[in-house]
């Protein structure tokens, strides 16, 4: 009898033990929530540090240091024989006009050797700025005109504060005479940082102050156009067949497994495939948007196929059953009902795949899109580069000014990626259906 009562007492939960268990469970839940909050804060913090470092290094690239020169557009130098045709004006000696205007600001610089050093204060594009103005305004010949011309990249870095003036002269990476001349020009109120339009309208250059992203941007969009043109229809047709028409057997299972595996293959493998097949076997031109688009479409196909199949699966079976019930064929059911309802999800996956392709570098390096490209491509077979490769090229350049150009190009690339992902989110929110 006593053993039975003891067993019964043990089976009855004690209030103090139940409360202790509840406290432990609630404490574990609070710790779990805390771990999640800490993880999110750490992720946001690391992202903020990354973006902050990029912006801190790159925002100055959107401004370029200029020098204001008062220049006499001498008739004797520009058009000594009175010929003001476009070709004659383009061949005039604008270098002498530019440098004489510079010498006039620093009259104490007289000997030839020192003047050659002084000439390095200006960018090589300064005479071209004067030439373009004269060609566009031949009626201004003979007048005194003020020009804002670019300075050399070392002066640009000095003006933006990247040169440590406290360091020994041999570690400043700039001639002390140039620093002195720059300070004199600042005192004359002739040095100013203006918006750098060349960064958006120029192409790649060996000189940082003349480098821009126009050619790389055009190359990126042409490459993405080829990628979209090839990958979207093939991926949608493949997803529709596998999801709606293909028999469920070991062969389709093998295809599905391989599609999922291809989505995880390193991108450089697709570059090797493009180099071996598209270029070496078929003879397509290297460094062309056509080749880059083919390679990126191979890389993007698995992503779009997987997202398209998920979108097709999300359409309720009742839609298919209702269409078949009123006499529609399977093709009509898919094309008239299932596919239109799944288009928002398919577009979302496509845009995400395109955003991934926009940021790829490794496969494009393998097909030669790492070349130094000055001209903006005008066709899909012209030599070209893309923004990620341009970032890579600038990051390997020794000049300090290319560091800010690299960060600025990354900012532009991130802006495109954010815009594409935001478009995907908006499309999903706009056309998403709740079943």
Molecular structure report:
With 435 residues, this protein is mainly α. It has 3 domains: 2-58; 62-202, no CATH class; 214-431, MetI-like fold, CATH 1.10.3720.10. The chain has 19 helices and 3 strands. A 3-stranded antiparallel sheet has the order 2-1-3. Helix 2 (15-58) crosses helix 19 (401-431), helix 5 packs across helix 7 and helix 11 runs antiparallel to helix 16. It is extended and about 95 Å long.
CATH homologous superfamily (4th level) name of the largest domain? MetI-like
What percentage of the residues does DSSP assign to strands (E)?
A: 5-15%
Low-confidence parts: none
Rg over C-alpha atoms, rounded to the nearest angstrom: 32 Å
State the CATH topology of the largest domain.
Answer: MetI-like fold
End-to-end span in angstroms? 62 Å
Main structural class: mainly alpha
What is the CATH-assigned architecture of the largest domain? Answer: Orthogonal Bundle
Helical percent range?
55-70%
Q: What's the helix-strand series?
A: HHEHHHHHEHHEHHHHHHHHHH
Mean pLDDT: 88
Descriptive key words:
435 residues, mainly alpha, MetI-like fold, 3-stranded antiparallel β-sheet, 5% strand
């Amino acid at each position: 009898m006593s053993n039975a009562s003891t067993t019964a007492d043990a089976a009855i939960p004690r209030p103090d033990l139940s409360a202790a268990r509840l406290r432990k469970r609630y404490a574990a839940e609070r710790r779990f929530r805390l771990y999640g909050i800490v993880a999110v804060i750490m992720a946001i913090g690391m992202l903020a540090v990354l973006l902050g470092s990029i912006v801190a290094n790159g925002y100055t690239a959107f401004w370029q240091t200029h020098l204001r020169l008062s220049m006499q557009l001498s008739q004797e130098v520009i058009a000594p024989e009175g010929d003001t045709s476009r070709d004659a004006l383009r061949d005039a000696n604008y270098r002498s006009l530019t440098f004489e205007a510079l010498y006039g600001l620093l009259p104490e610089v007289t000997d030839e050797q020192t003047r050659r050093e002084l000439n390095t204060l200006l960018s090589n594009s300064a005479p071209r700025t004067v030439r373009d103005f004269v060609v566009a305004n031949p009626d201004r010949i003979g007048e005194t005109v003020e020009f804002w011309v670019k300075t050399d990249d070392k002066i640009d870095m000095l003006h933006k504060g990247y040169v440590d003036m406290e360091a020994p002269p041999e570690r400043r990476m700039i001639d002390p005479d140039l620093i002195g001349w720059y300070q004199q020009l600042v005192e004359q109120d002739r040095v100013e940082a203006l918006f750098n339009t060349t960064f958006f309208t120029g192409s790649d250059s060996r000189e940082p102050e003349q480098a821009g992203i126009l050619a790389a941007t055009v190359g990126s969009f042409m490459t993405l156009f080829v990628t979209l043109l090839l990958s979207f229809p093939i991926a949608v047709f493949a997803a529709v067949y596998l999801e709606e028409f293909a028999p469920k057997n070991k062969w389709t299972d093998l295809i599905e497994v391989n599609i999922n595996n291809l989505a995880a293959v390193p991108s450089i493998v697709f570059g090797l495939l493009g180099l071996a097949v598209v270029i070496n076997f078929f003879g397509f031109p290297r460094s062309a948007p056509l080749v880059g688009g083919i390679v990126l479409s191979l890389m993007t196909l698995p992503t779009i196929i997987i997202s398209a199949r998920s979108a097709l699966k999300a359409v309720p079976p009742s839609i298919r059953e209702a269409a078949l019930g009123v006499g529609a064929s399977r093709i009509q059911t898919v094309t008239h009902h299932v596919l239109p309802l799944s288009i928002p999800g398919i577009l979302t996956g496509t845009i995400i795949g395109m955003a991934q392709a926009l940021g790829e570098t490794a496969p494009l390096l393998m097909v030669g899109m790492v070349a130094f490209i000055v001209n903006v491509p005008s066709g899909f077979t012209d030599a070209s580069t893309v923004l990620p490769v341009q970032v890579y090229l600038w990051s390997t350049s020794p000049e300090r000014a290319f560091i800010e150009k690299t960060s600025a190009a990354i900012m532009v690339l991130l802006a495109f990626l954010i815009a594409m992902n935001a478009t995907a989110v908006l499309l999903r929110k706009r056309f998403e259906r709740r079943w």
